[in-house]
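Researcher: Going back to the complex we discussed earlier. I've cleaned up the inputs and rechecked each line, so this should be the final set. Can you rerun the prediction on the complete assembly and write out the structure?
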Amino acid sequence: MMRQQELVMQLRALVLPLLHGVDYTSADIAVQLFDDVIGCNISVASKLEGCLMSTGAGGGTMVELVDDKSLVRKSMTSSTTGDRTEGQVKPNSVGQKRRRNDKRSRSLVTHVPHYDGHQWRKYGQKNINGRQHPRNYYRCAYRERNCLATKTVEQQEQNAGTSSAMAVEENAKYTVVYYGDHTCKNHSTSMVQAPQLVNMDLHNGEMDQTTTNAQEPEADLDLPALLEVFDSSLINWQDWNEDVIYNLSP
DNA sequence: ATTATTTGACCTCT
DNA sequence: AGAGGTCAAATAAT
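Model: Rerun complete. Updated structure for the full complex:
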């Protein structure tokens, strides 16, 4: 199953960019089809996993829904000097700094996270301890529209086998973690489930234009986000084991 | 001129 | 104190 998902993702990454430049309508349909396929796959995988869950670790895995213990932040009072009053600060829940995981996060590993439909704006970059590549922080471009979705993208380390720089670039994989759901755009296209994915790429910073066609449903699960091959080696979800592993089966 | 990205400072949590 | 996450001024791109 995992292999299948991986292959579908690869095909998706290959096809969508090509279609995107040619026929937006087809690209849009392709996105939905891919996501539908993926969604079916995930659904089955989730059920299977639910049955097998007891086995613990679950080395394999695919999606992770990480739930955080707390939504964090205390209300920080922005009293006195300087605060950013942009617009209006919401005194209460907006803490702003340090949000860690919102409700749940979904991680995904993919190379070339592009074309999925959401538009993101980069708001930060950080080097993470011991990691080779920096982590990039993005938030939904429509944040004003009440959309609090954010994501982080980080290139996975490449092992020795790397040959040329080019090769590395092409094989580069990125770990993308999504936080929050998109509440912007309510325009859902029919399809049952809507996938939403997003992507951006980081390296080079060159191409990042995100596509504009995004349509997103408000479905809250990001399928895409779910699937993937997850190399847990790079990610330490220390918390996730205890919290939610959100599978459907009770 | 406007909008997006870069990047160091700032903030919070562990 | 250090690490991770966010802000915002400066800068770059459009």
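Model: Worth noting: Helices of chain A lie at 2-22, 24-52, 165-171, 223-226.
Researcher: Good, that matches what I expected from the previous run.
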